[in-house]
Design goal:
Number of strands: 8
Radius of gyration: 18 Å
Helix content: 10-25%
Oligomer: single chain
Length: 192
């Protein structure tokens, strides 16, 4: 059942992206003429991979991001803050562990090589909101996140910022492993 929830969430997000592109009337790039600061806010959903996927099924949360122009319509400095809840899997005895709650804070660069398509890289720290509940020995970890995405123009300074990323976190326990996952972010973006 949990796999069907994951598939449903990702399918819903992808359907929203494709329907927005089908309804877009303005072919002008969302970055064109809006080289000022952009603020975006939206949901994040993810799927843990490797050892992290053994303990957690999927994640859901949200984030706020600010993009500051460095090179007109091409290069932006980004600052991102969010909250993610990773839902614990049931073990073989049917007992569910504690959910993992992260507060990632990242900074990086977003580059638009062509029109509204971008490549983004960020790094920062992920803070564990429930360290005692999950038995972690560290309350923060290094985080890095390469991402690709697209700005779907909604007209004027409004857009949908849709991106797919791999996010890696270093260990939260001394003898543990890294906590990596793939995530999808679909956010409403507004140029200031």
């Amino acid at each position: 059942m949990k796999n069907s929830i994951k598939i449903g969430v990702l399918s819903l997000a992808l359907s929203a992206i494709f329907s927005l592109t089908a309804n877009a009337q303005d072919t002008k790039p969302a970055t064109s003429g809006n080289s000022g600061i952009r603020i975006s806010i939206g949901p994040d959903a993810g799927i843990p991979v490797s050892n992290f996927g053994d303990a957690y099924d999927w994640s859901f949360g949200g984030s706020v991001q600010a993009d500051f122009p460095i090179l007109k319509d091409q290069l932006y400095a980004t600052f991102n803050a969010g909250y993610l809840n990773f839902f614990a899997k049931d073990n073989n005895a049917g007992v569910t562990g504690e959910d993992l709650q992260l507060i990632p804070l990242k900074a990086g660069l977003k580059y638009f090589p062509i029109h509204n398509f971008y490549v983004q890289g960020e790094a920062g720290a992920a803070f564990l909101a429930n360290k005692k509940d999950v038995g972690a020995t560290k309350s923060a970890a290094f985080v890095y996140a390469p991402q690709v995405g697209y700005l779907f123009n909604l007209g004027g300074k409004h857009a949908i910022d849709a991106g797919v990323r791999f996010e890696g976190n270093s260990k939260f326990t001394d003898n543990g492993s890294s906590n990596n996952y793939f995530a999808l972010r679909v956010a409403y973006s507004l140029g200031l």
